[in-house]
């Protein structure tokens, strides 16, 4: 244990904030998450990157 401790302050309302965070987290767990959007058939990589499908036929 260190010989010297440095006081950095008091955090008012800490217990109230922790309770609110706990309630919000419990609410998120109860509610179903929205469905994720379908994946695009062609990603940004495929459409723009030099190694994408569109550039494979060029023979580089």
Structure, explained:
Residues 1-48 are annotated as: Disordered. Residues 13-23 have a biased composition (Basic and acidic residues). The chain has 60 residues and is mainly α. Helix content is 43%, strand content 0%. It has 3 helices and no strands. It has helices at 14-30, 44-48, 53-56. The termini are far apart.
Précis, in short:
This protein has 60 residues and is mainly alpha-helical. It has helices spanning 14-30, 44-48, 53-56.
Topology overview:
Layout (H helix, E strand, L loop, with lengths): L13 H17 L13 H5 L4 H4 L4
Descriptors for this entry?
60 residues, single chain, 3 helices, mainly alpha
Strand content: under 5%
Q: So what's the overall shape?
A: elongated
In total, the number of strands is 0
Query: Overall mean pLDDT score?
Result: 77
Order of helices and strands: HHH
Tally of helical segments = 3
Q: Rg, please?
A: 26 Å
The CA-CA distance between the termini, in Å, is 65 Å
- In helices, the fraction of residues equals 40-55%
Largest sheet: none
Q: Provide the low-confidence segments as ranges.
A: none
**What would you call the structural class?**
mainly alpha
């Amino acid at each position: 244990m260190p010989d010297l401790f440095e006081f950095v302050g008091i955090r008012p309302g800490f217990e109230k904030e922790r309770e609110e965070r706990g309630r919000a987290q419990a609410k998120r767990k109860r509610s179903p998450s929205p469905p994720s959007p379908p994946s695009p058939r062609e990603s940004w990589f495929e459409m723009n990157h030099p190694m994408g499908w569109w550039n494979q036929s060029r023979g580089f």
